[in-house]
Fold this sequence. Notes:
The chain is α+β, with helices and mostly antiparallel strands. The protein has 8 helices and 7 strands; from the N terminus they run H-E-E-H-H-H-H-E-E-E-H-E-E-H-H.
Amino acid sequence: MDLDGNSLYRTILNAIPSPVFIVDDDVRIADLNGVASTLSGQEPDAILRRRGGEVLHCLHSVDVEEGCGRGPACQHCVIRNAVTACLDGKTVSRARMKMEFLPVTGQSPMELFVTASPMSNGGETLALVIIEDITEMSKLKDIIPMCMQCRKIRNDDEYWQTVEQYFHDHIGVDFSHGICPTCVEKYYAEYSG
């Protein structure tokens, strides 16, 4: 597969709705999709051959003069460790990490799932890295204030809304409604069978 010239390869890569990076063993970017370029806020040509932490504006990419991958925090980087594992022949699926950004970006920390899988190109083993933003979902793991009477949820603006509306607004989930067997017996016994 020619990373630069294959239009089917490029079409597939850009069809993936999550940021995708193809990197070497030092997490230097060999290729990326359009979503990854948008996430970084840079044009693809400015990203290629740079380390992932520099491109993603990782807070720790400037800890030491040598840059991304060289500071003390980098040994715990889920992206770097996923790349290392996958280049050793293991697929890493949805490893969780919290990424903090350089203050100049003004971006809040993000919770991410990182998936890395080995791939080969012209005899060189590379890692295909997919990043999923789960920040909104991870917020839901916190305690959510709910009215003990009507079961509405208080959102961040101190407004009370239905459970259905809360989940729709925060993670795009819609509900369908049914009735459980216990409630059928309790409220609709004459219809049960």
